[in-house]
C-alpha cells in the first residue's frame, strides 16, 4: 500500500477532537490536539471493534465511546480498563492545509 | 490479600493490587471454573454472534502467572472466620487473610413458580449462555419473563437468530426501575418493530410444562407458550458469607465510602455491596453495573493497602439492543425536571435536573454510539455538580464541552 495519503483538510477536525477516515477497507482516526498538532491511529478500539471517532478527546487521551477504554492517541498506549492492547499509530504531516498520513 | 469472587470486580482488584506495587501474596477464589471473563457479552454476542462462543477473558493464564496472582478456580468460599481471619473453601481448604475483599457479585432472582421446570432458565454465567445458545434455533419459541435489561437484550439476540419472542412484564412498562419512560418507550418500539410481542402489566399465575413446551398462564386468563423460558427478574446480591459472619447488611453487604464493611479488615465491592454516594447526599445504593465493578475493584485494592480514598464515580451503565445503544450516567430518579436534546437520526438525550438546577443524570438512546460522547460529557458535568442552563442543554448545537469549561 502506498505510503503518504491525504486524509482530510486541516480544518475538518476541531481542536481537541477526532474524525474518522476510511481508506481502502481500513479505518483510521485523525486527531487534532489542544495545542494544534495532528495525530493518526487505527480507527477501531482494541477491546471490541468500535469506531473511536465517536469517542471523546481530552488532552492526549481518546476515550472509546463504548466502554470508556482510554488510549494516548499520540503514542497509542492503552491507558485504562478495559483496554489492554495498544493502538497502532501513524506518522502525520500537514501540507498546504491538508492532513497527510503515512499508512505504511 | 485474599479476594472472594473472580468476576469483573475481583480480578480488577487483584490486578490493581499488583499495579500498586503490592509484593505479598494475592489469592483469588472463584466458584466458576473459567478464567475471569466479561459478563456483558453473555446476553449479546455470546448468544447471537457468528463465532463459536468463547468467554471474553479479562486476564489470561499468563497474565496471572506473570503477576503471581494465585487463582483458585472451581472453589467456593463457604465460611468466614473473622476471629481466625480465615476463609473456608468447599474443598476443605482454609485460606488465611490479612485483608479480605468480598467481590461475590449477584445471582439471578429465582421465580418460585418456575422451580423444577427444566425449560425455565436463568442467565448469569458463561455456562448459562452456552446452554441458552444451544437451544436457540430458528423457530424455537422463546418467552422472556421480566422486561429488564438482561431479558430484553436476550430477546433482541433471540430475534437475530430467528426465534419468535414474547416478553412478559408484570409492571405497566418495561425497564420501569432502570430508565425514564421516554427511553423505555423507544426501546419498546424497537422491539415491536422487530416483531417481539411485549405483554406489560401481566403477572404470572401458573407455569406448567407439558409435551409441547412451557405454558405460562397470565393473571388475565391468557397463556403464552414457549419452548424455552428465560427468566430475568432481577438479581440478588451474593452475601451468605457476609451474613454468616454477621457483617452489616443493607440491600447488599453494607460498606462505607472507602468500601470497608463493618469489619475494618474486610472490604466488599461490585454487585454484592451497597455503598453511599456523596454526590446524592449520601444516598445508599447498590449498582449492578460493569464499570462500577471495575472502579470499585480498583479502589478497594488501594484501600486494602492502607489507602483512604472514597468512591466518587458517577454511576454509568450501557445496554445494546439491535442497532440501538443506550447509556445512562447518574441516577435519573434524583431529577425533578427533564430537558430533552434531539441529536438527529432518532437519537436523543434526557437531562435530569434537581430542584436547584443541578444536573443529576443523563439518559440517552440512539443508533450505535450516537449518544456516547454527550453522555460522557454529561457525566463530567454531573461529577462537577454543574447547573447548566436547561435551554443550552436542549440545543443540539451547544457543545457540552463548552458547558464543562464554563
Ligand atoms: C448477561 C449479563 C449482561 C450484562 N450486561 C451489562 C451491560 O450491558 N452493561 C453493564 O454496565 N453491565 C452489564 N452487566 C452487569 C455486569 O456484568 C456486572 O455488574 C458485573 O459483572 C459485576 O461484577 P462483580 O465482580 O461484582 O460480580 P460478578 O461478575 O457476578 O462476579 C462474581 C463472581 O464471584 C463468584 N462467587 C460468588 N460467591 C462466591 C463464593 N462464595 N466463593 C467463590 N466465588 C464466589 C461468582 O461465581 C462470580 O464468578 C451484565 C450482566 C449480565 C449477567
Ligand atoms: S470497545 Fe472500546 S473500550 Fe470496549
From TrEMBL, chain A:
Coiled-coil intervals, chain numbering: none
Domain of life: Bacteria
Keywords: 2Fe-2S, Iron, Iron-sulfur, Metal-binding
Cofactor: [2Fe-2S] cluster
Rieske domain span: 5-101
InterPro entries in the record: MocE_2FeS, Rieske_2Fe-2S, Rieske_2Fe-2S_sf
Pfam families with a match to the protein in the record: Rieske
PANTHER family listed in its UniProt record: FERREDOXIN-RELATED, RIESKE DOMAIN-CONTAINING PROTEIN
Entry-linked NCBIfam families: MocE_fam_FeS
Family statement drawn from the similarity comment of this UniProt entry: Belongs to the bacterial ring-hydroxylating dioxygenase ferredoxin component family.
Protein name: MocE family 2Fe-2S type ferredoxin
Source species: Mesorhizobium liriopis
From TrEMBL, chain B:
Domain spans labelled FAD/NAD(P)-binding: 2-297
InterPro entries tied to this protein: FAD-oxidoreductase/Apoptosis, FAD/NAD-bd_sf, FAD/NAD-binding_dom, FAD/NAD-linked_Rdtase_dimer_sf, Reductase_C
Coiled coil: none
Alphabetic keyword roster: FAD, Flavoprotein, Oxidoreductase
Cofactor(s) recorded in Swiss-Prot or TrEMBL: FAD
Occurrences of domain Reductase C-terminal (ranges): 316-404
Tree of life domain: Bacteria
Pfam families noted in UniProt: Pyr_redox_2, Reductase_C
Listed name of the protein: FAD-dependent oxidoreductase
Organism: Mesorhizobium liriopis
